[in-house]
Structures are given as C-alpha cells and as structure tokens.
C-alpha cells in the first residue's frame, strides 16, 4: 500500500501517526510518498487550502480534527499559521524515502506542525527533528536542498497528479484509490484481500 501525504495536510497528521502500526498488524507492506498539494490546488484555480477558502468547511475541519485526535489520544494544537510551507520537509522525505528512519522523521514533522505549533518551513526545526533521531541533521538538510532532491519532489508530485490524487492523505492499493484518514482501514482491508 502506498501512503501519499502532505506535511501541511491536517488529516494526514492522524493518518501518519497510525498507518505504520496498522499496516504491520495487517501484514501489508507500506510505501511512504510525500508530495505537494499546492500545485494540485493551483490547477483547480485555488490559491490556498480549501479549508481557508471555504470558512464553514474550515471550522468543521478543525473541530473534527480535535475530535479525531482526542479519540486516538494524539496531542493536538492548532497551528497559528495554516497551511505551513512544507516544501523542504517533503524534499527530505522524497530524497530519503528508502531510509529506515523515514517514518520516524515523518511523524516528528507532523508532531512539530500539529502538536507543537512549530514552523516546519524553518530549516532549524527540521534539523532538530532529524537530530532527535540521532541523524546528522545539517548534512541531510544540505542534501535535501540539492537540484536532484528538488527534481525528485517535483516528479513525485507529478506522479500524484497522474494517479488522480486530489487530496491528502491518499492510500493506493493496486489501481484503487482511497482518500482521507477515515479510509485507512478500508484501504488496508482491500490490501489484505489482495494479499490473500
């Protein structure tokens, strides 16, 4: 199963914190796929998150996210700024997608954004997320800002568009697309049937 996520995406936060354990429990191999929603929204004529463009929907989303996090016993603090600029974090996730520490880094960035209200656009915040995992944060950040890393993220976002992804989180199993944190269990059930 592929897990497509955006670090600025509210509903990607609870999904990112629970997807690995659930996939392991179901025996489903998992691929982590960072991408950017901004270009997808811009192609639809939006210059901001739909949760900002449509205030009624936005108010519902924040309350819904509070309920979800309370139910899952996840810490939550509404960010002062939404959405946060997530390009550098996504470049790190694309550049080091095959590293065993990637899921821990992804969770650390989501916690920084949605539990600690830290600015994940700031390199020092991401460096701290890496350093806390006993990784050479400054060195990895430098690699993530290379032209190759930028190209990887651009290609991955283009791949998301080609797959028909329009929001995050999205789970893909074979040719099936499941959109939203609330579709994680359905995606895993589908993947389990395919494996059987």
Automatic annotation (TrEMBL):
It comes from Candidatus Competibacter phosphatis. This is 2-hydroxychromene-2-carboxylate isomerase. Its EC number is 5.99.1.4. InterPro entries: DSBA-like_thioredoxin_dom (IPR001853), GST_Kappa/NadH (IPR051924), HCCAis_GSTk (IPR014440), NahD-like (IPR044087), Thioredoxin-like_sf (IPR036249). Pfam families: DSBA (PF01323). It catalyses: 2-hydroxychromene-2-carboxylate = (3E)-4-(2-hydroxyphenyl)-2-oxobut-3-enoate. Residues 2-186 form the DSBA-like thioredoxin domain. Belongs to the GST superfamily. NadH family. Keywords: Isomerase. The keyword Coiled coil does not apply. The keyword Hydrolase does not apply. GO terms for molecular function: isomerase activity.
